Every structure is written in C-alpha cells, then in structure tokens.
C-alpha cells in the first residue's frame, strides 16, 4: 500500500472481502442465512437479507444500506422505491428518518422532537465500560443507563478481542432499538494503539516522522479497526501543545511545536473522519468515518512544575510566558480547519485545569468545562466552533467520591454534581464526560429554566441535542449500526498482513537516531542476522502513587526487555540467566517469589566475545507521582527527567509558586479574582525527586562498561514518552535510538540494518535539569539542549541517518522559530 491508503484497501485480498461481496458489498453486514436476494426483494428495489447475528441487512441499491433487528419491533417505511427506518413508529417518513437529507437537517428535526429527559440522556457520556461478558450480553448496569436515555458509551474494553467487542456492540444496539427511544448508541474509545487492533504509531511517534501523510494513514487505519468494533467516535487526538517537558501526558501529543502539531493533527483527523472511495478520493462523512473529539481545549499542558490535571496537585495551568494563544494553534488552525471534506473536528473535550492569573486574564478560576471565557467567549463566539463540547471525565463528582476533578467548584456546601452540571451547560458545554445519571442534566435544565425562562432553556437544550446528534448522522449509525462479527474477527483480530507491515514501516519512520558514533548502525541484510547480547532488565521494587490516589508497592521483576520472538526475528540473541528458584519476597497478588539481583547471572566479557554488539533496551526515568508530583507526606517534589536524584535548589527554581488554592482554605469560586488573595505555596524548592527506576541507569552503564571490556559497541534503545536527560550515560555508549510511544520492534529493524532511520525529534532534549527549570511551562522550544561527544545538539528537528545529521524539506519547513500567534 502507498500513501493513497483507503479503508477499502484494507479489505483487498482478504477472505472477508469475498464474503462481503455476497452481502451486496457491505463491510458491516453479517453472514447471510439466505443469499437469494431476488426472493427477498421488496417494493421497487430494496432487498432484505438475514444474518447469523440476529439482524437484517437492507440493500437500497444506490441508496444507504440499513441494518436492524427484526426482534426489536422496528419496521421499515417504503418511499420512492427505497427503505427507511420507522423510528417514530408512525408509518410516515419524517425528516430525521430520511437518509437522503443532510445531517444538519436531520439533527435539527430530531432535536425538536426529543423530550428534555431524552436530551438529558444524550448529554451524558457513560463511564468506562471495561468488561465484556462471556456471552457479550448487556449488563444490568448498562441497561439502567440506557433506559435513562444515555446513548454515548465509552468502550474501554480494549483487552478483549475485537470480535467480542463487536458482538457486545450489536447486543447493546439491539437493546436500545427495542426501547421506546430508538436512538442508536454512539460508541467511543480512547486511543488503543496495538491493543487488539493494528499497532499504528502513537501520536508522538507520528510527530517524529515530520510527515502529515503518515498521520493521515494512521488516522484512517485506526478508524478502520474501530468501526469494525462498532465504535464511531474517537476520544482524541490529544491536540495539546506539549510545552512543558515534565508533563506526564506529553506522549499523547504531537510534540511541542505548534506548527508541527497543527499539521499532524489536521492530517490525522482527515484520515479518521473522511470516508474514501475505491480510488482514494475523499467523499467526506460516510460509513467508514469515525468522529474525532479533540482534547483538551484550550490547553492542558502548562501545569505548574509539569504537574497534570487529573489530580488536585496539577489542577492549575500557568502562563508565565503569556503564550496562551500559541497553545490553541493546533486546535484553531488545525483541528477546526481541516483540508478534507468533513471540514472540522466533530467535537472537543475541555481540559481539567484552571488557567491561573491574578487578574483573571483567562476568565474565572474554574476548570475549563465550567469556564464561560474558554467555552462561550473563545470556542463558540471567537472561533465559531459549531460541533459539540464535552467535559473531561468526572468533573461533576464531589471530592473524595472516587475520581473527582471539579476544580474550582470543590466546595460541597455550595456545589453538588447537579449544580456543576448546570454551571457547565450554562457556558455552552453539551455533554458531561463519565456521567451515567441524566437526572443531573434535568436539574441543569430546571436551573436554566428558572434563571433564563422556559423558552431559553428549551432553546439551549435543543441546540446541544442538535450538536450532539450531528456525529450520529454523519457517521451513519442511524442507518447501519450493526457489525459483521466474522468480518471483525478476520479483518481486525487476524488482520491483514500488508496493513500490519505498513503500520510497522510507519513505526520505523518515527524512530529517531540520536547518536551513531563510528557508524556502528549501518545497512545490513535479512540473510545475516547480527549476534547481540541483550541484558535482562532488572527492576527493583518501588512505591508509587496510583492513578486514582493512594500509594502502593510494585514488586521487583526481571525479564527480557522485548519478547523473545521479536528479538529472534532480527537477531541471534544471547542473554543473562535467571535462577529457576527465586529468593525475593513473595508477590502477594501472584503468590510467587520475586527476583533479587543474586538470582541474576550476567554474561561476562568472555561470554560475549563473538557478539556484534551489546543492545540495551531502556525505559526512561519514571517519577513516583507524575501527576501531582508529591511525596507520601503530601510535600511537593520536583518532577525529574534524569535517573539520579535531583535536588531542586538552583536559582531558577521558584521558591514561591505562581498558583495555588487560597491559603485560608476557601475556594476560588468564592473570590472575584486572585488579586490580593494570599495563596498556598506549592513550591518544591530544596526538595529531591523521587524516581522509581534509577537502577535502569546502572544497567546502562554496566552494559556499556562490559561492552568496552569486550571491545564491542554498545547500542541503547530508549523507550521514552517525553524528553529526558541523557547526560548521565551518553558519553559511555556508541549509539542511541529513541522510540516515542511507538514500537521498539521498529527500532530493532534499524539496529539490524534493515531500515535507515529518518525520524526527527518533535521536542527538545534538555542539557540538564537546571535547564529544565529555566524554561517556562507555556513556551515551546525554550531550553538549552544537550550536545553530545560528537558535537551533535539534540534540538527540535534533530535526527541522524547513515550520512549524518538529516537536512531535508522537513527540517527546512519546521526547523524555524516556533509560532506564537494564530493565523489571521
């Protein structure tokens, strides 16, 4: 496959394609129980075909294909020789049932027919649905929120085979189709690269290709797999400019440069949202489209000290460089201005964080989902975004009630979940992420009716319904919500070899070679596998903060850093020996003993005398609490990008934080502004980092020393998710490759000489932690970068190939000063 990848190409040459041809060319149909289409012909031209999965396919010839469950009670309407679904049950075709009309016309019509209770259901986005029953049935919990009119469901069941997810989606759709409210379910997914689907590069790896066409191909490929699981909305891409190197969600972004992020984001969404014809032409929205919900508006990355908004410690975003506008560039000039025919991203998700400023320059001191400035004034009025807006998850919850992110509205004596929902809706947000309870939205409606009057409250709710329904009509799930489980098993679970190879090829494009001293990495051949020593990776036990809070112990472990099959695919491998009987403490979860260093026997210099090189696969430094950046006593500590302990005591460390809660224990919602209010000090000055895998550095240095003793080169593959400091080991090793939320297998291909590296850094690699402290949280590319022993500086857009530093059209286009202003 070339650059003109289409979703139809995924079917080419597959057994599924032949089966689908028997179902009138349908890619979402099912195995027919009868293929006598002439006998099934209805009216003037459409045909019905039953499937083995309990639903029926309606072939409308040159019209839209339908699918429905005969057991649901839904009937068809014939008009002008075509079939339409009778959602209303009247036998008369109304506008929203007519697939010949535009999505806008249909959404407008249906929004006007819904009750407030039904709209309230649309305005809820379910919590994570992570488990699929053995029989893929609908659970009692799911029936409860579906009966409450919830129709946006988060499929977080990526651990299950795709065919099971497809079967569950069918059962869920049949359940709502049999109810009074027959609006189909809009299933969504967070990014799930490689988890029971094709392993396309992650966002940061896509950015490292500096090639938007690769991102477009990945968007199309991801959409292909998601649609075959019944998923029609993607909670992404993460469109934030990663302006602070310490931010733990850096890997989900397209890097730290606004222009590169803009172009990569735009191309990715075009690939995801646009259906293409057999010739690769963009036909706009269609049955292969997945609606993108870009996040996190208007910016999430500038958390003070690199902290992150899921936790109280990271709830403040700051703008010491006054660079607020630049952080919106990938949204406004990218996601909202697509080159493809869908025109704009379908939806946005608001950020958790409070944009902090003493003078309220960025609006009220509340999270973005409650902010009139960010949603009403910016998103809707200034930038004219007409799609739906959804909060990030759990912003309605009270503090202490599991996950809760109601920043700015934490005071439970004033704010209830219903009041928070009312606040969010009042500023123009349409949907509440992680909310299964529509009564909260009914309460929001009643508040709005009391404050604004019934007519205005109705108008606001109808407008939200219309915006939300657009993605349902655009993706065609009103017509054809059911999935061919056999096709899913064949196309996704088994997969197409050509597609997998193309995804791996694109993974390779996202690998960056930082160092290649003496050209130790060079062209090779598949017929001659290099012999390599791969040290086993030993991880000491450590304590770390959980995602939902609390601290827990992770036991020690020792294993090959890559699967044995992957390594042997490219190398003749020798490695260390782990004792059969381990002597460490028992793992309480497994009941098995854990390893100690005494259980590990490393190879010696004489043992590796005949290898071609030593290959170390290393994980980047990992902070014990990367979101709040606190210790177990609640003290703020620095987030570090190096392995060894780092004490934040230089002149560049803030001794007084810019942001914090009021020192008197009040909440910001009680104050008109922060001006003159004494705030708590969240500084980490004088404290030391808490890195859980410092021993990784020891293993790199020990392997490098062993390689020198044996007279062999040492190559390091760094698996990183954000910038890191390499000064601790760079001079001791011969070559460094970085894999950024991509594939370490792709890096192995480069080490083996099967592919020449071409990736470029979509970020800067800092000289040291003092330089990290100098940079400002909201400014891109403002660090002094590390220069290695060969004289190469690891700056944005740096990368090596066999000939040396890469200089091409990509570096000329993006290797300029970063943008700071939106386009006119």
Automatic annotation (TrEMBL):
Domain Glycoside hydrolase family 3 N-terminal: 139-468
Molecular-function GO terms, alphabetical: beta-glucosidase activity
Alphabetical UniProt keywords: Glycosidase, Hydrolase, Signal
TM regions (residue ranges): none
Keyword Hydrolase: yes
Enzyme Commission code(s) on record: 3.2.1.21
InterPro entries associated with the record: Cellulose_Degrad_GH3 (IPR051915), GH (IPR017853), Glyco_hydro_3_C (IPR002772), Glyco_hydro_3_C_sf (IPR036881), Glyco_hydro_3_N (IPR001764), Glyco_hydro_3_N_sf (IPR036962), TAT_signal (IPR006311), TAT_signal_bac_arc (IPR019546)
Family annotation (NCBIfam families): TAT_signal_seq
Name used for this protein in its record: beta-glucosidase
Protein species of origin: Tractidigestivibacter scatoligenes (Olsenella scatoligenes)
């Amino acid at each position: 496959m070339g650059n003109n990848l289409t979703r139809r190409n995924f079917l080419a040459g597959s057994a599924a394609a032949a089966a689908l041809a028997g179902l009138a060319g349908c890619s979402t149909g099912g195995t027919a129980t009868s293929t006598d289409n002439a006998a099934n012909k209805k009216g003037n031209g459409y045909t019905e075909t039953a499937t083995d999965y309990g639903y029926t396919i309606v072939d409308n010839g040159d019209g839209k294909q339908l699918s429905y469950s005969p057991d649901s009670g839904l009937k068809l309407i014939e008009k002008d020789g075509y079939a339409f679904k009778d959602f209303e049950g009247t036998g008369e075709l109304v506008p929203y049932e007519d697939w010949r009309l535009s999505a806008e016309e249909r959404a407008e019509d249906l929004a006007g027919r819904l009750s407030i209770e039904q709209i309230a259901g649309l305005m809820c986005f379910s919590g994570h649905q992570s488990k699929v029953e053995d029989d893929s049935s609908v659970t009692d919990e799911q029936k409860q929120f579906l009966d409450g009119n919830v129709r946006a469901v988060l499929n977080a069941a990526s651990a299950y085979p795709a065919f099971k997810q497809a079967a569950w989606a069918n059962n869920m759709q049949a359940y709502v189709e049999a109810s009074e409210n027959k609006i189909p379910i809009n299933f969504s997914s967070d990014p799930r690269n490689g988890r029971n689907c094709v392993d396309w590069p992650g966002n940061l790896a896509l950015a490292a290709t500096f090639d938007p066409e690769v991102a477009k191909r990945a968007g199309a490929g991801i959409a292909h797999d998601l649609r075959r699981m019944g998923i029609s909305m993607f909670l992404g891409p993460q469109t934030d400019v990663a302006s602070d190197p310490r931010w733990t969600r850096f890997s989900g972004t397209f890097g730290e440069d606004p222009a590169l992020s803009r172009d990569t984001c735009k191309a990715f969404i075009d690939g995801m949202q646009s259906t293409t014809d057999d010739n690769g032409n963009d036909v706009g929205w269609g049955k292969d489209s997945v609606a993108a919900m870009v996040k996190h508006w208007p910016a999430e990355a500038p958390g003070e000290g690199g902290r992150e908004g899921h936790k109280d410690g990271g709830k403040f975003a700051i703008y010491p460089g006054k660079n607020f506008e630049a952080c919106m560039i990938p949204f406004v000039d990218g996601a909202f201005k697509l080159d493809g025919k869908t025109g704009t991203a379908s939806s946005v998700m608001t950020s958790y964080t409070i944009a902090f400023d003493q003078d309220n320059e960025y609006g009220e001191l509340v999270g973005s989902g409650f902010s009139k400035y960010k949603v009403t004034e910016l998103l809707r009025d200034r930038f004219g975004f007409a799609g739906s807006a959804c909060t990030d998850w759990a912003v309605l919850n009270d503090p202490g009630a599991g996950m809760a992110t109601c920043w700015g509205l934490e005071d439970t004596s004033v704010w209830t979940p219903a009041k928070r929902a009312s606040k969010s809706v009042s500023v123009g947000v349409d949907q509440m992420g992680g909310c299964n309870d529509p009564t909260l939205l009914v309460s929001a409606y009643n508040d709005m009716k009391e404050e604004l009057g019934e007519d205005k409250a109705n108008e606001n709710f109808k407008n939200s319904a219309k915006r939300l329904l657009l993605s349902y009509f655009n993706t065609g799930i009103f017509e054809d919500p059911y999935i061919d489980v056999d096709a899913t098993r064949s196309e996704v679970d088994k997969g197409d070899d050509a597609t997998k190879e193309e995804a791996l090829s694109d993974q390779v494009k996202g690998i960056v070679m930082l160092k290649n001293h003496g050209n130790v990495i060079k062209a090779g051949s598949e017929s001659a596998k290099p012999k390599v020593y791969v040290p086993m990776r030993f991880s000491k036990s450590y304590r770390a903060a959980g995602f939902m809070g609390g601290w827990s112990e992770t036991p020690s472990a020792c294993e090959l850093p890559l699967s044995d099959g992957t390594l042997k695919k490219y190398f003749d491998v020798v490695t260390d020996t782990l004792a059969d009987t381990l002597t460490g403490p028992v793992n309480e979860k497994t009941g098995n003993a854990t390893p100690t260093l005494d259980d590990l026997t490393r190879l010696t210099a004489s043992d590796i005398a005949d290898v071609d090189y030593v290959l170390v696969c290393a994980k980047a430094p990992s902070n014990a609490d990367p979101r709040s950046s606190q210790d177990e006593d609640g003290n703020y500590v620095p987030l570090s990008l190096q392995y060894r302990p780092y004490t934040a005591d230089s002149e560049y460390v803030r001794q007084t934080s810019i942001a914090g809660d009021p020192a008197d224990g009040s909440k910001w919602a009680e104050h008109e502004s922060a001006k003159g209010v004494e705030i708590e000090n969240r500084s980490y000055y004088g404290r030391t980092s808490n890195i859980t895998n410092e021993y990784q550095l020891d293993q790199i240095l020990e392997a490098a020393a062993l390689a020198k003793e044996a007279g062999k080169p040492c190559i390091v593959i760094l698996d990183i998710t954000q910038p890191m400091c390499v000064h601790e080991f760079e001079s001791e090793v011969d070559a460094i490759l970085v894999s950024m939320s991509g594939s370490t297998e792709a890096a192995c291909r480069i080490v083996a000489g099967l592919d020449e590296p071409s990736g470029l850094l979509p970020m800067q690699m800092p000289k040291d932690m003092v330089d990290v402290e100098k940079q400002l949280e909201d400014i891109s590319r403002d660090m002094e970068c590390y220069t290695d022993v060969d004289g190469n500086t690891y700056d944005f857009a740096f990368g090596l190939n066999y000939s040396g530093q890469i200089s091409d059209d990509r570096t000329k286009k993006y290797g300029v000063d970063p943008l700071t202003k939106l386009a006119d």
